[in-house]
C-alpha cells in the first residue's frame, strides 16, 4: 500500500531539505546543534522531543508498505493548490496522521480540517488523545469540531491512546474507533517486556544511576525526588524535553554562545530556572534530538523515573526498568490502557520516606500479569492496523 504519513514526525524529519509537490528531498546530514539558538530552534521544531517517539512508532508500524513522510506544514501550505493535492490523491492510497493531544480546549484544528477535506483517500488518525477531559465537549474549539465533522463524512479510522478518548469520539459520531495506545509503545516490544520484568525489583529503590524527567522551570518535584533517592555524592541526570520553550528553563547569554555537547547530549551552558537553588546534589541536564542517541544513553542507567511518559518509554525501549508518576489525565489514560505500573503524584509527593515507599511498591508488581496485558495490547494494535489494510 502507498502510504502518506504525516503529523508528528520521527527525528528523521531533521534531514528534510524541502518539499515540492509530493516529492520530499532529504539531505544526508542533520543540522548542527551547538549554540543557544541551535538548541532552542531544534526543540521548537518538534515542540517536545518526546514527540519523536510518537512519529518513530507510527512510521515503524507501517514498515512493509511504501511509506512517504510528508511534513504536515507542506500539506497546510499547499492547501490552496489543487494541482498539489491532485498529485497526492493520485499517488497515495491512504493517509496516516500521527497525532497526540489533538483534542484539547487550547488548540483549534482548523488546518487539519482543511487538509483532510482536500485529501480524497481514507485517513487513519493514530495515537489521538485528550488533554484536560473535564467539560471537553463544551470547550472544543470550532476548528476541532470541523476537523471531526470532516472525518465523520469520509472513510476514517481513529486509533486512540485509551478508552476515554475512544468513548468521546464515538459520542461525536465517529464510526470506526479503536483504543490501541500510543504507537511508541510497540516500537521495541521485546525490550519493553524486558523492562517490565526488571521493574519488579525492590532493590531498584537504591539505584543511583537514574534518568529523571519532569518539569524543571515549573515545579521542584524532580529535585525533591532526586534528593530522596540519590546519595549526596551521586549525580542527578535530568532529561530535558520541552522545558526550554514551555517551562521557563532559560539559557542566559547571546544566541551564538555554545551551550550543547552533541556527543554526550549534555547542556554545557549556564541555565536559569525556578527552584534551581534547591539542588543539593551535583546534576546534569541532557537533551536528545536523535532517539537512537537517547536510547543509547539511557541504556547505561539503572532506572528511568519521573513525570514524563515518553521520558520513561524511551528507557523501556532500551530494556531499562522505568516507573512513571502520573500527573494528569493524559498519562493516566495511556497508563491505564496499557496496564503499566505507575504511582499517583498526589500520593508519592506526600510520602515522608520515599525510598521505602518505592521499594514496597516495586515489590508488589506482578510482572507476568503486566507483560500479559502488554502482549494483548500489542496484538490489538497489530490487528487494528490489519483491519485497515496496514
CATH fold assignment of the largest domain? Rossmann fold
Strands, total number: 16
Q: Sheet bearing the most strands, described?
A: 6 strands, parallel
- Arithmetic mean of pLDDT: 96
The largest beta-sheet arranges its strands as 4-1-5-6-7-8
Shape: globular
Number of helices: 17
Describe this structure in words.
It is a single chain. This protein has 390 residues and is of the alpha/beta class. The chain has 2 domains: 2-32 and 43-185 and 377-388, 3-Layer(aba) Sandwich (Rossmann fold), CATH 3.40.50; 189-367, Rossmann fold (3-Layer(aba) Sandwich). The chain contains 17 helices and 16 strands. It has helices at 36-46, 51-61, 72-77, 82-91, 110-118, 136-139, 142-152, 163-171, 189-199, 221-229, 243-246, 291-298, 309-317, 329-338, 345-349, 354-363, 367-387; strands at residues 2-7, 16-20, 23-26, 66-69, 94-98, 123-128, 156-160, 177-179, 210-213, 235-239, 260-261, 266-267, 282-286, 303-306, 322-326, 342-344. The chain has a 6-stranded parallel sheet, with helices on both faces. Strands 13-10-9-14-15-16 form a 6-stranded parallel sheet, with helices on both faces. Strands 2-3 form a two-stranded antiparallel ribbon. Strand 7, helix 8 (163-171) and strand 8 (177-179) form a beta-alpha-beta unit. Helix 5 runs parallel beside helix 7 (142-152) and helix 9 packs across helix 13. It is globular. It starts with a strand and ends with a helix. GO terms for molecular function: transferase activity. InterPro entries: Polysacch_pyruvyl_Trfase. Keywords: Plasmid, Transferase.
Amino acid at each position: 500500500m502507498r502510504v502518506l504519513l504525516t503529523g508528528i514526525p520521527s527525528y528523521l524529519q531533521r534531514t528534510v531539505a524541502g518539499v515540492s509537490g509530493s516529492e520530499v528531498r532529504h539531505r544526508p546530514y542533520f543540522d548542527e546543534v551547538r549554540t543557544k539558538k541551535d538548541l532552542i530552534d531544534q526543540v521548537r521544531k518538534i515542540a517536545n522531543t518526546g514527540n519523536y517517539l510518537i512519529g518513530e512508532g507510527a512510521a515503524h508500524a507501517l514498515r512493509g508498505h511504501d511509506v512517504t513522510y510528508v511534513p504536515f506544514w507542506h500539506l497546510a501550505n499547499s492547501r490552496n493548490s489543487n494541482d498539489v493535492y491532485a498529485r497526492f490523491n493520485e499517488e497515495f492510497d491512504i493517509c496516516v496522521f500521527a497525532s497526540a493531544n489533538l483534542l484539547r480546549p487550547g488548540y483549534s484544528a482548523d488546518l487539519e480540517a482543511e487538509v483532510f477535506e482536500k485529501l480524497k483517500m481514507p485517513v487513519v488518525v493514530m495515537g489521538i488523545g485528550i488533554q484536560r477531559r473535564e467539560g471537553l465537549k463544551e470547550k472544543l474549539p470550532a476548528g476541532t469540531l470541523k476537523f471531526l465533522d470532516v472525518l465523520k463524512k469520509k472513510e476514517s479510522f481513529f486509533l486512540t491512546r485509551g478508552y476515554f478518548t475512544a468513548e468521546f469520539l464515538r459520542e461525536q459520531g465517529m464510526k470506526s474507533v479503536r483504543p490501541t495506545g500510543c504507537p511508541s509503545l510497540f516500537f521495541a516490544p521485546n525490550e519493553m517486556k524486558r523492562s517490565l520484568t526488571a521493574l519488579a525489583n525492590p532493590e531498584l529503590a537504591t539505584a543511583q544511576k537514574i534518568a529523571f524527567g519532569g518539569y524543571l522551570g515549573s515545579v521542584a518535584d524532580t529535585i525533591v525526588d532526586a534528593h530522596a533517592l540519590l546519595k549526596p555524592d551521586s549525580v542527578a541526570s535530568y532529561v530535558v524535553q520541552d522545558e526550554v520553550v514551555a517551562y521557563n528553563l532559560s539559557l542566559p547569554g547571546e544566541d551564538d554562545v555554545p551551550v550543547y555537547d552533541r556527543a554526550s547530549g549534555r547542556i554545557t551552558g549556564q541555565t536559569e530556572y525556578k527552584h534551581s537553588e534547591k539542588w543539593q546534589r551535583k546534576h546534569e541536564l541532557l537533551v536528545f534530538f536523535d532517539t537512537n542517541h537517547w536510547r543509547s544513553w539511557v541504556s547505561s542507567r539503572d532506572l528511568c523515573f519521573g513525570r514524563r511518559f515518553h521520558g520513561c518509554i524511551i528507557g523501556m525501549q532500551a530494556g531499562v526498568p522505568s516507573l512513571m508518576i502520573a500527573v494528569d489525565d493524559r498519562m493516566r489514560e495511556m497508563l491505564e490502557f496499557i496496564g503499566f505500573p505507575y504511582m499517583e503524584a498526589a500520593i508519592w509527593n506526600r510520602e515522608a520516606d520515599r525510598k521505602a515507599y518505592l521499594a514496597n511498591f516495586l515489590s508488589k508488581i506482578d510482572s507476568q500479569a503486566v507483560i500479559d496485558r502488554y502482549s494483548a495490547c500489542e496484538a490489538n494494535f497489530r490487528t487494528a492496523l490489519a483491519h485497515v489494510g496496514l
